[in-house]
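Before a colleague's protein record goes any further, I have to sign it off. My question to you is simply how this chain folds and whether the tokens agree. I do not need a full report, just your reasoning and any doubts. This is what I was given:
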Amino acid sequence: MQFLANPTDLFNQAKSAASSVASTAINTATNLANQATNLANQAANSDVATNATAQAKSIGNQAVSTAGSLAGQAHAQAHSLAPGVIPAPSGGTGGVNVAEGVDKRGDLSPTDEIGKAKFEKLFESRHTPAELQDKGILKGAPGDSLAGKRADLEKAMHKDQLDKEIAQRPQPEELVKKGILSRKSSYMIVVPA
């Protein structure tokens, strides 16, 4: 006679296995998405934009495929641990096809009143884009993903221009010859090397 394990233990094991694989999927997808973003930024700043954009697309597609594959594996592992609790993964209609990516059918809205109240409170207390711009957190208009990079570039260009102008200014000896600076005050000036 076979004794059935505690359904709670099976459910917890299934949750643990699914969480572990989902965490791995998220980390992998995040890393691949970061690589795709870096390649897209390189594409915007280089002459080989077409090649870098193609590489970014490829990495993005790999991220989606990997996340879907790992999600399918997590579902299969959860089902093998608790077949009576977790339905079998199906490759056809109604289920998540691993090749299609992550299952987006679920509703993640809170179901209990306490969860709904917390969500509403957080939603109401979030800052507006204008407030984030005033605090310097959001640069540019909402949705302008390159505003921060543009601001950094403008700052660097301004600094380069100032450095160039400082390097081209006349030396104190020249100013004394032109009568702009007196010999007495020229001893007070320290010229950076």
